[in-house]
Amino acid sequence: MRILSIETSCDDTAVTIFEARGGIRDAVFKILANNSNSQIKIHIPYGGVFPALAKREHQRNLPLLLEKTLKEAKLGQSRIQIFSNDKAVNVRGERKNLSPAKLIDLIAVTSGPGLEPALWTGIVFAKELAEKWSVPLIPANHMEGHIFSVFGKGKGKFKVKKLKLPALALLVSGGHTQLVLMKKWMRYEIIGETVDDAVGEAFDKVARMLGLPYPGGPGISKLAELQRNMLLKRTDIFLLKNSSCSPRRAPKSFQKHISSAQSSEITLPRPMLHSKNFNFSFSGLKTAVLYLIRDIGKLNEKIKTQIALEFENAAVDCLVYKSAKAVEKYKIKTLIVAGGVAANSHLRNEMRKVAGKKIKLLFPPKELTADNSLMIGIVGYLNYIKNKKRVPQPDSIKATGNLSL
Ligand code: KG4
Ligand code: ZN
């Protein structure tokens, strides 16, 4: 099957065309063309995504991206004129009897969760195409997409591999922070989530307080990494001076010293760390940074890096601690970490420790941590197969900002 997938839930407009075959536990995919247009530059002055602007940009980008993607995918060596009433027109403008319906078999589009004005642009566009080309249209859940992004690749072929169940997915993005339990394949139970801000949102807001650009995750992570390495180096010198063993093989008493040396003088709270459930809270952590900055007054680069490190440590501690608790309680065999914040190196390293040697740990490749249409296509195809090729009436497909898994 050839699938065209569209993603417009936030500030990335993305279109993919790929081939897919196989069942829901052994599907094989081949990417033909994969394109996206980030709107980050446009939203920078607002310090976050401005929905009306996102909608306008998606409307502008979609036809251009579709044309580019169709061209790159070389479907039937022909260039399809998207909104003409003819079936298809080739590069030289000659009419060919190449029905797009024969070139694309299924369209998948994100229906939620996300910003509703942004989601609608993708849905309306997909509906128009599906009608013109007489192709079935399937809605896809953005969060399910993030889970399945771990199987994807930036280009070429890839497979959905059989995972040992139960699996646990830590989904961390600008809009969500969830722990999702999968006891059966493609059946989800949200066992924990944020009660206020998403972790990515906290990264973005703290970054803004530190004068770093939107989106804030990469900037904070870079500063934190600098500070962490600097402190580690200092600890190494300390250890070399005081012990004959190398830092890696340092005795427990020294290990304790390493972690306290890494956490600098600034201390931030780890909200809900010891709550009896699997929920998170990041609003208090963000406010703690705000008060800290207010109390310090003028920030210099050194203090900024210290705050970045302690904030990243605090946020990651909360994510990792609750994930570890859930791994233990549900006897998890596969651990998935996905969504924009899954690009964070410190989070990746700490989750490696949670997984150890016995639990299979999966992250998306770095190019698929952020929003993309490939993940939408994967779950569109899998659900199409799972539902025995039944799709909802196009009229019933709606944008649902808070769509749940
Ligand atoms: O999944 P995503 O691309 O979009 C949403 O669905 O929200 O996630 C975007 C979020 C932003 O908040 C961004 O700051 C965060 O992911 N992010 C990071 C990193 N890279 C992106 N957070 C922490 N560390 C990173 N390296
Ligand atoms: Zn996302």
TrEMBL record:
GO terms for cellular component: cytoplasm. It is found in: Cytoplasm. The gene is tsaD. HAMAP family: TsaD (MF_01445). Required for the formation of a threonylcarbamoyl group on adenosine at position 37 (t(6)A37) in tRNAs that read codons beginning with adenine. Is involved in the transfer of the threonylcarbamoyl moiety of threonylcarbamoyl-AMP (TC-AMP) to the N6 group of A37, together with TsaE and TsaB. TsaD likely plays a direct catalytic role in this reaction. The keyword Iron-sulfur does not apply. Belongs to the KAE1 / TsaD family. It comes from Candidatus Nomurabacteria bacterium GW2011_GWF2_43_24. Residues 30-80, 102-229, 259-377 form the Gcp-like domain. GO terms for biological process: tRNA threonylcarbamoyladenosine modification. Binds 1 Fe(2+) ion per subunit. This is tRNA N6-adenosine threonylcarbamoyltransferase. Keywords: Acyltransferase, Cytoplasm, Iron, Metal-binding, Transferase, tRNA processing. Its EC number is 2.3.1.234. The keyword Transmembrane does not apply. Its cofactor is Fe(2+). It catalyses: L-threonylcarbamoyladenylate + adenosine(37) in tRNA = N(6)-L-threonylcarbamoyladenosine(37) in tRNA + AMP + H(+).
